[in-house]
Specification:
The protein is α/β, with parallel strands linked by helices and 211 residues long. It has helices at residues 9-30, 48-53, 67-77, 112-125, 146-160, 163-174, 177-184, and strands spanning 38-42, 59-64, 81-85, 98-104, 126-137, 187-195, 200-207. It binds S-adenosylmethionine.
Length: 211
């Protein structure tokens, strides 16, 4: 399969990490892991998110579909994380393995069917009392100036990522983005923050126990 990130992986962090790092730090403040926890980053990309979790002495695992992104992640993390090539819609992990699963800026680029399959897989590999950290685009309302400017930058990036990526992004926002997916998946929001003038959302979630 063609890797959509093959020409892009080497410059991804230079383009986006100044913006992404702020979002990652908000996520860490929402859920500070303790030593020994098992953490999975789904769609881990270049490993920048996992790198921030190294200081907590957790067992770090990253999964990604892109060999090019994983190569950058391997260069960055070395033996500090287990990095697996694979589709998050069919994860190679046993049930109930992880205390924390993170998914940042990946859901919006997946097809609708893949999104549902990935969230089902995440619920399977998460411990019953585990947490899910979701970070992705938010459908507004957008605040004047900050929100509109941020939306413009996002639009350029999503168009540059190619037609299929852009179509999935449009579908994600038009269908309610994270709030709608969380509702459909019967997940419970413990904490939530809307950032960058209404263009990004961060949710800390747990599995809803059966009624
Ligand atoms: C925009 S990048 C974000 C990377 C990283 N989460 C970050 O915050 O920097 C999206 C990543 O999701 C990965 N991805 C997309 N669909 C996937 C799937 N079905 N399974 C695993 N990874 C996937 C892509 O290969 C890419 O590395």
């Amino acid at each position: 399969m063609r890797d959509p990130y093959r020409n892009f992986a080497g410059i991804y962090d230079r383009l986006f990490d100044s913006m992404n790092k702020g979002l990652r730090l908000v996520g860490i403040r929402m859920f500070r892991p303790s030593k020994g926890m098992s953490i999975l980053d789904v769609g881990c990309g270049t490993g920048a998110h996992l790198e921030l979790y190294q200081r907590y002495q957790c067992n770090l695992v990253g999964l990604d579909l892109s060999p090019a992104m994983l190569e950058v992640a391997r260069g960055r993390l070395g033996a500090a994380a287990q990095l697996d090539l694979g589709d998050a819609a069919d994860m190679p992990y046993e049930d109930g393995r992880f205390d924390l699963v993170m998914l940042m800026l990946s859901l919006h680029e997946m097809s609708p069917g893949t999104r549902t399959a990935v969230l089902n897989e995440i619920k399977r590999v998460l411990k019953n009392d585990g947490r899910l950290l979701l970070i992705d685009y938010h459908p507004g309302p957008y605040q004047p100036l900050q929100g509109w400017l941020s939306k413009l930058v996002i639009l350029f990036a999503e168009i540059a990522a190619g037609l299929e990526h852009f179509r999935n992004y449009r579908h994600f926002l038009a269908n309610g983005a994270l709030p709608a997916l969380i509702d459909r998946q019967h997940l419970m929001a413990e904490k939530k923050q809307i950032l960058a003038g209404g263009t990004f959302a961060i949710y800390l979630l747990s599995q809803k126990l059966a009624d």
